[in-house]
Protein backbone atom coordinates (compact mmCIF):
# COMPACT_ATOMS: atom_id res chain seq x y z
CA UNK A 1 0.00 0.00 0.00
CA UNK A 2 1.85 3.08 1.27
CA UNK A 3 5.22 1.32 1.04
CA UNK A 4 4.65 0.48 -2.62
CA UNK A 5 3.31 3.98 -3.27
CA UNK A 6 6.37 5.49 -1.57
CA UNK A 7 8.75 3.41 -3.72
CA UNK A 8 6.92 4.37 -6.89
CA UNK A 9 6.80 8.01 -5.83
CA UNK A 10 10.55 8.03 -5.10
CA UNK A 11 11.24 6.65 -8.58
CA UNK A 12 8.94 9.27 -10.08
CA UNK A 13 10.70 11.98 -8.06
CA UNK A 14 14.09 10.90 -9.47
CA UNK A 15 12.66 11.02 -12.99
CA UNK A 16 11.27 14.52 -12.34
CA UNK A 17 14.70 15.65 -11.09
CA UNK A 18 16.36 14.31 -14.24
CA UNK A 19 13.96 16.41 -16.32
CA UNK A 20 14.43 19.50 -14.11
CA UNK A 21 18.25 19.27 -14.28
CA UNK A 22 18.18 18.89 -18.09
CA UNK A 23 15.66 21.73 -18.55
CA UNK A 24 17.64 24.02 -16.21
CA UNK A 25 20.86 23.32 -18.10
CA UNK A 26 19.30 23.89 -21.55
CA UNK A 27 17.62 27.08 -20.29
CA UNK A 28 20.96 28.30 -18.86
CA UNK A 29 22.68 27.65 -22.20
CA UNK A 30 19.89 29.53 -23.99
CA UNK A 31 20.15 32.54 -21.66
CA UNK A 32 23.92 32.64 -22.13
CA UNK A 33 24.19 32.21 -25.91
CA UNK A 34 20.82 33.35 -27.29
CA UNK A 35 19.10 35.34 -24.56
CA UNK A 36 19.98 38.46 -22.52
CA UNK A 37 23.50 37.29 -21.56
CA UNK A 38 24.63 36.61 -25.13
CA UNK A 39 26.09 40.06 -25.91
CA UNK A 40 29.69 39.14 -25.05
CA UNK A 41 29.38 35.35 -25.28
CA UNK A 42 32.01 33.40 -27.21
CA UNK A 43 30.64 30.08 -28.44
CA UNK A 44 33.81 28.00 -28.53
CA UNK A 45 31.89 24.72 -28.11
CA UNK A 46 28.77 23.54 -29.94
CA UNK A 47 25.37 23.00 -28.34
CA UNK A 48 25.85 19.24 -28.69
CA UNK A 49 29.18 19.37 -26.84
CA UNK A 50 27.57 21.28 -23.99
CA UNK A 51 24.70 18.77 -23.82
CA UNK A 52 27.13 15.84 -23.60
CA UNK A 53 28.01 17.05 -20.10
CA UNK A 54 24.52 16.07 -18.95
CA UNK A 55 25.71 12.45 -19.04
CA UNK A 56 27.94 13.31 -16.06
CA UNK A 57 25.91 16.12 -14.48
CA UNK A 58 22.62 14.24 -14.05
CA UNK A 59 24.09 11.28 -12.06
CA UNK A 60 26.22 13.73 -10.06
CA UNK A 61 23.26 15.85 -9.01
CA UNK A 62 21.05 12.83 -8.27
CA UNK A 63 23.77 11.50 -5.92
CA UNK A 64 24.07 14.91 -4.26
CA UNK A 65 20.29 15.13 -3.80
CA UNK A 66 20.33 11.69 -2.24
CA UNK A 67 23.23 12.68 0.04
CA UNK A 68 21.40 15.83 1.16
CA UNK A 69 18.21 13.85 1.99
CA UNK A 70 16.16 15.48 -0.77
CA UNK A 71 14.30 12.22 -1.38
CA UNK A 72 13.09 12.05 2.23
CA UNK A 73 9.38 13.02 2.38
CA UNK A 74 9.14 16.81 2.50
CA UNK A 75 6.60 16.89 5.32
CA UNK A 76 9.17 15.13 7.54
CA UNK A 77 11.81 17.82 6.98
CA UNK A 78 10.09 21.17 6.61
CA UNK A 79 10.23 23.53 3.65
CA UNK A 80 13.10 25.70 4.90
CA UNK A 81 15.34 22.68 5.50
CA UNK A 82 14.54 21.35 2.02
CA UNK A 83 15.43 24.72 0.45
CA UNK A 84 18.66 24.81 2.46
CA UNK A 85 19.57 21.30 1.27
CA UNK A 86 18.80 22.20 -2.36
CA UNK A 87 21.15 25.19 -2.09
CA UNK A 88 23.87 23.08 -0.43
CA UNK A 89 23.61 20.28 -3.01
CA UNK A 90 23.72 22.71 -5.93
CA UNK A 91 26.58 24.70 -4.42
CA UNK A 92 28.65 21.55 -3.98
CA UNK A 93 27.70 20.43 -7.51
CA UNK A 94 28.84 23.76 -8.98
CA UNK A 95 32.16 23.58 -7.09
CA UNK A 96 32.75 20.01 -8.34
CA UNK A 97 32.02 20.97 -11.97
CA UNK A 98 34.18 24.11 -11.93
CA UNK A 99 37.02 22.25 -10.19
CA UNK A 100 36.81 19.36 -12.68
CA UNK A 101 36.95 21.75 -15.65
CA UNK A 102 40.00 23.42 -14.13
CA UNK A 103 41.75 20.10 -13.45
CA UNK A 104 41.23 18.77 -16.98
CA UNK A 105 42.24 22.12 -18.46
CA UNK A 106 38.93 22.75 -20.25
CA UNK A 107 38.78 26.51 -20.83
CA UNK A 108 36.34 26.61 -23.76
CA UNK A 109 33.20 25.88 -21.76
CA UNK A 110 31.52 29.03 -20.45
CA UNK A 111 31.71 29.27 -16.65
CA UNK A 112 28.87 31.82 -16.78
CA UNK A 113 26.59 29.12 -18.18
CA UNK A 114 27.19 26.97 -15.12
CA UNK A 115 26.56 29.87 -12.75
CA UNK A 116 23.27 30.61 -14.55
CA UNK A 117 22.41 26.89 -14.32
CA UNK A 118 23.15 27.04 -10.57
CA UNK A 119 20.56 29.80 -10.03
CA UNK A 120 17.95 28.39 -12.41
CA UNK A 121 18.23 24.85 -11.05
CA UNK A 122 17.80 25.96 -7.43
CA UNK A 123 14.67 27.92 -8.37
CA UNK A 124 13.14 25.12 -10.46
CA UNK A 125 13.96 22.35 -7.95
CA UNK A 126 12.43 24.39 -5.13
CA UNK A 127 9.38 25.25 -7.24
CA UNK A 128 8.80 21.64 -8.28
CA UNK A 129 9.15 20.37 -4.71
CA UNK A 130 6.74 23.01 -3.44
CA UNK A 131 4.24 21.97 -6.11
CA UNK A 132 4.63 18.29 -5.17
CA UNK A 133 4.25 19.18 -1.48
CA UNK A 134 1.01 21.10 -2.11
CA UNK A 135 -0.43 18.33 -4.30
CA UNK A 136 0.35 15.63 -1.70
CA UNK A 137 -0.98 17.79 1.13
CA UNK A 138 -4.24 18.26 -0.76
CA UNK A 139 -4.46 14.51 -1.44
CA UNK A 140 -3.92 13.65 2.21
CA UNK A 141 -6.49 16.17 3.36
CA UNK A 142 -8.96 14.39 1.06
CA UNK A 143 -8.08 11.02 2.61
CA UNK A 144 -5.74 9.75 -0.13
CA UNK A 145 -2.17 8.40 0.19
CA UNK A 146 -2.44 7.97 3.96
CA UNK A 147 -0.35 5.91 6.39
CA UNK A 148 -2.44 3.61 8.59
CA UNK A 149 -0.95 2.98 12.03
CA UNK A 150 -1.65 1.86 15.59
CA UNK A 151 -0.10 2.96 18.87
CA UNK A 152 1.18 0.48 21.46
CA UNK A 153 0.73 2.00 24.92
CA UNK A 154 -1.57 4.74 26.21
CA UNK A 155 0.53 7.59 27.67
CA UNK A 156 1.21 11.31 27.51
CA UNK A 157 3.41 10.54 24.49
CA UNK A 158 0.45 8.82 22.77
CA UNK A 159 -1.85 11.79 23.44
CA UNK A 160 0.73 14.34 22.26
CA UNK A 161 1.43 12.29 19.13
CA UNK A 162 -2.28 12.12 18.30
CA UNK A 163 -2.55 15.89 18.90
CA UNK A 164 0.21 16.63 16.40
CA UNK A 165 -1.11 14.21 13.77
CA UNK A 166 -4.58 15.74 13.94
CA UNK A 167 -3.14 19.27 13.75
CA UNK A 168 -1.14 18.32 10.62
CA UNK A 169 -3.34 16.30 8.24
CA UNK A 170 -0.79 16.95 5.46
CA UNK A 171 1.48 14.38 7.12
CA UNK A 172 -0.96 11.70 5.98
CA UNK A 173 -1.12 9.62 9.21
CA UNK A 174 -4.29 7.92 10.42
CA UNK A 175 -4.23 6.33 13.89
CA UNK A 176 -6.51 3.29 13.76
CA UNK A 177 -6.38 2.64 17.50
CA UNK A 178 -4.34 2.12 20.67
CA UNK A 179 -3.32 -1.14 22.37
CA UNK A 180 -2.85 -0.97 26.14
CA UNK A 181 -3.02 -3.34 29.10
CA UNK A 182 -4.01 -0.78 31.74
CA UNK A 183 -6.70 1.31 30.05
CA UNK A 184 -10.14 -0.25 29.36
CA UNK A 185 -11.03 -1.06 25.76
CA UNK A 186 -13.33 1.56 24.30
CA UNK A 187 -11.57 4.50 25.99
CA UNK A 188 -11.47 7.42 23.55
CA UNK A 189 -8.98 10.21 23.07
CA UNK A 190 -9.98 12.73 20.38
CA UNK A 191 -11.71 10.07 18.36
CA UNK A 192 -8.94 7.44 18.71
CA UNK A 193 -10.11 4.35 20.60
CA UNK A 194 -8.28 1.83 22.79
CA UNK A 195 -9.03 -1.31 20.78
CA UNK A 196 -7.50 -4.05 22.91
CA UNK A 197 -4.52 -5.38 24.82
CA UNK A 198 -0.91 -5.36 23.64
CA UNK A 199 -0.92 -9.14 23.25
CA UNK A 200 -3.59 -8.74 20.54
CA UNK A 201 -1.01 -7.14 18.24
CA UNK A 202 -0.25 -10.29 16.26
CA UNK A 203 -3.98 -10.96 15.86
CA UNK A 204 -4.80 -7.40 14.76
CA UNK A 205 -1.97 -7.03 12.22
CA UNK A 206 -3.06 -9.70 9.70
CA UNK A 207 -6.62 -8.37 9.68
CA UNK A 208 -5.61 -4.73 9.25
CA UNK A 209 -3.18 -3.64 6.56
CA UNK A 210 -1.04 -1.32 8.66
CA UNK A 211 1.94 0.72 7.49
CA UNK A 212 3.46 1.62 10.87
CA UNK A 213 3.45 0.78 14.56
CA UNK A 214 4.41 3.46 17.10
CA UNK A 215 5.46 2.36 20.59
CA UNK A 216 4.09 4.97 23.00
CA UNK A 217 4.51 3.26 26.37
CA UNK A 218 4.35 5.31 29.56
CA UNK A 219 7.51 5.60 31.67
CA UNK A 220 6.20 3.09 34.22
CA UNK A 221 5.94 0.46 31.44
CA UNK A 222 9.49 0.77 30.11
CA UNK A 223 10.49 -2.52 31.75
CA UNK A 224 8.38 -4.16 28.99
CA UNK A 225 10.11 -2.30 26.15
CA UNK A 226 12.35 -5.17 25.04
CA UNK A 227 9.41 -7.62 24.99
CA UNK A 228 7.18 -5.23 23.02
CA UNK A 229 9.88 -4.26 20.49
CA UNK A 230 10.43 -7.97 19.81
CA UNK A 231 6.67 -8.45 19.39
CA UNK A 232 6.40 -5.52 16.97
CA UNK A 233 9.37 -6.65 14.90
CA UNK A 234 7.80 -10.10 14.46
CA UNK A 235 5.04 -8.36 12.56
CA UNK A 236 7.42 -7.14 9.89
CA UNK A 237 5.75 -3.70 9.99
CA UNK A 238 7.87 -0.56 10.28
CA UNK A 239 8.12 0.26 13.99
CA UNK A 240 9.12 3.51 15.69
CA UNK A 241 9.50 4.51 19.33
CA UNK A 242 8.02 7.73 20.73
CA UNK A 243 9.52 8.17 24.23
CA UNK A 244 7.42 9.47 27.10
CA UNK A 245 10.10 11.73 28.53
CA UNK A 246 8.81 15.10 27.33
CA UNK A 247 8.53 16.37 30.91
CA UNK A 248 12.03 15.12 31.74
CA UNK A 249 13.86 15.93 28.50
CA UNK A 250 11.67 18.62 26.92
CA UNK A 251 13.97 19.41 24.01
CA UNK A 252 15.72 17.40 21.32
CA UNK A 253 18.43 15.11 22.73
CA UNK A 254 21.20 13.51 20.70
CA UNK A 255 22.93 10.18 20.94
CA UNK A 256 26.57 9.10 20.97
CA UNK A 257 28.00 5.67 20.31
CA UNK A 258 30.55 4.73 23.00
CA UNK A 259 32.03 1.50 21.64
CA UNK A 260 28.57 0.14 20.87
CA UNK A 261 26.88 1.64 23.95
CA UNK A 262 24.28 4.29 23.01
CA UNK A 263 24.47 7.35 25.27
CA UNK A 264 21.65 9.93 25.22
CA UNK A 265 22.73 13.52 25.80
CA UNK A 266 19.80 15.43 27.29
CA UNK A 267 20.39 18.64 25.37
CA UNK A 268 22.12 19.42 22.08
CA UNK A 269 24.14 22.64 22.31
CA UNK A 270 25.98 23.31 19.02
CA UNK A 271 28.22 25.91 20.70
CA UNK A 272 29.72 23.23 22.96
CA UNK A 273 31.61 22.22 19.81
CA UNK A 274 35.06 23.88 19.86
CA UNK A 275 35.03 24.74 16.16
CA UNK A 276 31.56 26.32 16.34
CA UNK A 277 32.55 28.32 19.42
CA UNK A 278 35.72 29.53 17.70
CA UNK A 279 33.82 30.61 14.57
CA UNK A 280 31.30 32.52 16.70
CA UNK A 281 34.07 34.18 18.71
CA UNK A 282 35.86 35.35 15.54
CA UNK A 283 32.56 36.74 14.28
CA UNK A 284 32.07 38.55 17.62
CA UNK A 285 35.53 40.14 17.55
CA UNK A 286 35.26 41.35 13.95
CA UNK A 287 31.62 42.45 14.40
CA UNK A 288 32.24 44.35 17.63
CA UNK A 289 35.26 46.21 16.21
CA UNK A 290 33.30 47.26 13.12
CA UNK A 291 30.30 48.26 15.25
CA UNK A 292 32.49 50.34 17.59
CA UNK A 293 33.98 52.19 14.62
CA UNK A 294 30.59 52.82 12.98
CA UNK A 295 28.83 53.86 16.21
CA UNK A 296 31.67 55.98 17.63
CA UNK A 297 30.10 59.34 16.52
CA UNK A 298 26.82 58.34 18.22
CA UNK A 299 28.63 57.28 21.39
CA UNK A 300 30.58 60.56 21.47
CA UNK A 301 27.36 62.59 21.10
CA UNK A 302 25.68 60.56 23.86
CA UNK A 303 28.62 61.15 26.21
CA UNK A 304 28.30 64.92 25.70
CA UNK A 305 24.52 64.86 26.28
CA UNK A 306 24.83 62.79 29.45
CA UNK A 307 27.47 65.12 30.84
CA UNK A 308 25.38 68.21 30.05
CA UNK A 309 22.06 66.94 31.45
CA UNK A 310 22.89 65.17 34.72
CA UNK A 311 25.77 64.84 37.19
CA UNK A 312 27.56 61.54 37.51
CA UNK A 313 29.65 59.09 35.48
CA UNK A 314 29.10 58.50 31.76
CA UNK A 315 29.28 54.72 31.98
CA UNK A 316 27.24 52.66 34.35
CA UNK A 317 28.35 49.12 35.18
CA UNK A 318 26.18 46.40 36.60
CA UNK A 319 26.95 42.84 37.68
CA UNK A 320 25.38 40.24 35.42
CA UNK A 321 25.55 36.43 35.16
CA UNK A 322 27.16 35.08 32.01
CA UNK A 323 28.71 31.94 30.53
CA UNK A 324 28.96 29.00 32.98
CA UNK A 325 27.21 31.09 35.69
CA UNK A 326 30.22 33.40 36.02
CA UNK A 327 29.48 37.01 36.87
CA UNK A 328 30.90 39.97 34.93
CA UNK A 329 30.46 43.73 34.80
CA UNK A 330 28.18 44.76 31.97
CA UNK A 331 28.56 48.32 30.67
CA UNK A 332 25.84 50.77 29.69
CA UNK A 333 25.54 54.49 29.19
CA UNK A 334 24.08 55.89 32.41
CA UNK A 335 20.38 56.59 31.86
CA UNK A 336 19.27 57.10 35.47
CA UNK A 337 20.07 59.35 38.39
CA UNK A 338 22.72 58.08 40.80
CA UNK A 339 21.14 55.81 43.43
CA UNK A 340 22.36 53.54 46.25
CA UNK A 341 23.45 50.12 44.99
CA UNK A 342 21.21 48.35 47.53
CA UNK A 343 18.13 49.97 45.97
CA UNK A 344 19.24 49.62 42.37
CA UNK A 345 20.13 45.94 42.23
CA UNK A 346 16.80 44.54 43.44
CA UNK A 347 14.33 46.49 41.33
CA UNK A 348 13.47 46.92 37.70
CA UNK A 349 12.50 50.27 36.28
CA UNK A 350 8.77 50.94 35.93
CA UNK A 351 6.70 53.11 33.61
CA UNK A 352 7.37 56.85 34.14
CA UNK A 353 10.15 55.95 36.59
CA UNK A 354 11.34 59.26 38.15
CA UNK A 355 14.91 57.93 38.34
CA UNK A 356 15.28 57.91 34.53
CA UNK A 357 16.85 61.09 33.09
CA UNK A 358 15.26 62.85 30.06
CA UNK A 359 18.08 61.76 27.74
CA UNK A 360 18.05 58.35 29.48
CA UNK A 361 14.44 57.73 28.47
CA UNK A 362 15.35 58.27 24.82
CA UNK A 363 18.46 56.08 25.10
CA UNK A 364 16.55 53.21 26.72
CA UNK A 365 13.74 53.41 24.16
CA UNK A 366 16.21 53.24 21.24
CA UNK A 367 18.69 50.86 22.99
CA UNK A 368 21.51 53.38 22.51
CA UNK A 369 22.37 52.94 26.21
CA UNK A 370 23.56 49.40 25.35
CA UNK A 371 26.27 50.44 22.86
CA UNK A 372 29.09 50.18 25.48
CA UNK A 373 28.36 46.43 25.60
CA UNK A 374 30.30 46.22 22.34
CA UNK A 375 33.38 46.45 24.58
CA UNK A 376 32.01 43.57 26.70
CA UNK A 377 31.80 41.57 23.46
CA UNK A 378 35.37 42.48 22.53
CA UNK A 379 36.56 41.36 25.97
CA UNK A 380 34.73 38.03 25.67
CA UNK A 381 32.14 38.58 28.40
CA UNK A 382 29.34 38.69 25.84
CA UNK A 383 28.50 37.84 22.25
CA UNK A 384 26.77 39.80 19.51
CA UNK A 385 23.87 37.32 19.68
CA UNK A 386 22.69 35.28 22.64
CA UNK A 387 20.34 35.26 25.63
CA UNK A 388 20.26 38.57 27.51
CA UNK A 389 22.22 38.42 30.80
CA UNK A 390 20.40 39.00 34.08
CA UNK A 391 21.42 40.29 37.51
CA UNK A 392 22.44 37.70 40.15
CA UNK A 393 19.45 38.51 42.37
CA UNK A 394 16.97 37.75 39.59
CA UNK A 395 18.92 34.68 38.44
CA UNK A 396 18.54 33.17 41.93
CA UNK A 397 14.85 34.04 41.87
CA UNK A 398 14.08 32.70 38.40
CA UNK A 399 16.10 29.50 38.73
CA UNK A 400 13.59 28.32 41.34
CA UNK A 401 10.48 29.61 39.56
CA UNK A 402 11.11 28.87 35.88
CA UNK A 403 12.06 25.38 34.62
CA UNK A 404 15.27 25.21 32.57
CA UNK A 405 16.07 28.87 33.25
CA UNK A 406 19.74 28.12 34.00
CA UNK A 407 20.30 26.40 30.62
CA UNK A 408 20.77 29.87 29.07
CA UNK A 409 24.14 30.11 30.83
CA UNK A 410 25.60 27.35 28.66
CA UNK A 411 26.38 30.03 26.05
CA UNK A 412 27.66 33.60 26.21
CA UNK A 413 24.96 36.22 26.77
CA UNK A 414 24.26 38.50 23.84
CA UNK A 415 23.74 42.14 22.93
CA UNK A 416 20.66 40.98 21.03
CA UNK A 417 18.90 37.65 20.72
CA UNK A 418 16.03 35.59 19.38
CA UNK A 419 13.81 36.65 22.30
CA UNK A 420 14.52 40.33 21.68
CA UNK A 421 13.67 40.30 17.96
CA UNK A 422 10.45 38.46 18.82
CA UNK A 423 9.41 41.28 21.13
CA UNK A 424 10.31 39.74 24.51
CA UNK A 425 12.27 42.62 26.05
CA UNK A 426 11.87 44.62 29.24
CA UNK A 427 8.56 44.04 31.02
CA UNK A 428 7.46 40.91 29.12
CA UNK A 429 6.98 37.22 29.89
CA UNK A 430 10.12 35.63 31.33
CA UNK A 431 8.82 32.18 30.40
CA UNK A 432 8.38 33.16 26.74
CA UNK A 433 11.82 34.73 26.77
CA UNK A 434 13.37 31.50 28.08
CA UNK A 435 11.54 29.47 25.41
CA UNK A 436 13.12 31.68 22.74
CA UNK A 437 16.54 31.45 24.41
CA UNK A 438 16.39 27.65 24.54
CA UNK A 439 15.32 27.47 20.90
CA UNK A 440 18.32 29.65 19.97
CA UNK A 441 20.77 27.62 22.08
CA UNK A 442 19.70 24.31 20.55
CA UNK A 443 19.36 25.53 16.95
CA UNK A 444 22.38 27.83 16.69
CA UNK A 445 24.07 28.33 13.35
CA UNK A 446 26.06 31.22 11.90
CA UNK A 447 23.14 31.77 9.54
CA UNK A 448 20.76 32.02 12.51
CA UNK A 449 23.04 34.65 14.11
CA UNK A 450 23.11 36.65 10.88
CA UNK A 451 19.31 36.44 10.64
CA UNK A 452 18.92 37.77 14.21
CA UNK A 453 21.37 40.62 13.58
CA UNK A 454 19.51 41.47 10.37
CA UNK A 455 16.15 41.48 12.22
CA UNK A 456 17.67 43.60 14.99
CA UNK A 457 18.45 46.35 12.47
CA UNK A 458 14.75 46.58 11.59
CA UNK A 459 12.90 45.87 14.82
CA UNK A 460 15.35 45.07 17.57
CA UNK A 461 16.55 48.52 18.60
CA UNK A 462 13.25 50.22 19.40
CA UNK A 463 12.14 48.86 22.77
CA UNK A 464 8.49 49.64 23.55
CA UNK A 465 8.80 47.92 26.92
CA UNK A 466 11.84 49.91 28.11
CA UNK A 467 11.07 52.33 30.94
Summarize the structure.
The chain is of the alpha/beta class.
Please characterize this protein's 3D structure:
With 467 residues, the chain is an alpha/beta fold. Helix content is 51%, strand content 12%. The protein is built from 16 helices and twelve strands. It has a six-stranded mixed sheet with strand order 3-4-2-1-5-6, sandwiched between helices. Helix 3 packs antiparallel against helix 4. The longest helix is centred in the middle third of the chain and has 36 residues, at 274-309. The chain is flat, with a radius of gyration of 29 Å. It starts with a helix and ends in a 7-residue tail after the last helix. The mean pLDDT is 84.
What layout of secondary structure does this protein have?
Layout: H1 2-33, H2 47-52, H3 54-67, H4 79-104, H5 111-141, E1 147-152, H6 156-167, E2 173-179, E3 188-189, E4 192-196, H7 201-207, E5 212-215, H8 225-234, E6 238-241, E7 254-258, E8 261-265, H9 274-309, E9 315-321, E10 327-333, H10 341-344, H11 358-366, H12 373-379, E11 383-385, H13 392-401, E12 414-416, H14 418-421, H15 430-442, H16 446-460
